[in-house]
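May I ask for a single protein's sequence together with how it folds?
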Amino acid sequence: MTITITAFERSPDGGKGLARDTRVRWALEEVGQPYKVRLVSFHAMKEPAHLALHPFGQIPTYEEGDLALFETGAIVFHIAERHAGLLPDDANARARAITWMFAAVNTVEPPIIELGTARLLEGDKPWNKERLPLVEDRVRGRLHQLSARLSDADWLDGAFSAGDLMMVSVLLRLKSSGILDEFSNLTAYLARGEARPAYKRAFAAQLAVNTGKPTTE
């Protein structure tokens, strides 16, 4: 059965890899699974056909036979469980990798998203000058904790896993902020993730769509 995912017809980031379909593309590339991409416009995302797949009118979605999924974390988890390469064989190591997946989207990403909102959408608000430093401090607090845990290791818990895939994807949102540069081990960690051949293929495919030169997955 062919896997089909949805992605922005034109991503708000212009193809920088921040749209969440990149995470799903990356996971599929890591496990060597072919897939097709159905591009949707912002208008189509709110239409009944797409809402039947994603009740909140977002991307990505994942379809395989009779199975339809939404939410990036759930999709990547499903891929990792179905195909070798993203979760360790050892039961305890597997559980820890899954824990890092949840930590990425539940603990580390929320303040990063809040920072993006404060900078991009609330910059003209009269209270932004007082609020922005507080948001930045919350991001730094999480990064300090993550940096301490990673220390000088290459990956979060032994070999690369779906936990690292999700964490690197989250940290990518900070790449242009300057804040991540304050943590040399996290900057190196991000670079290792971006250097993976599977990530490069996923990034190139997403970028091609947004530069008007779609590739065939």
The first helix runs from residue 21 to 30. The chain has two domains: 3-85+198-210, 91-196. The chain has a mean pLDDT of 92.
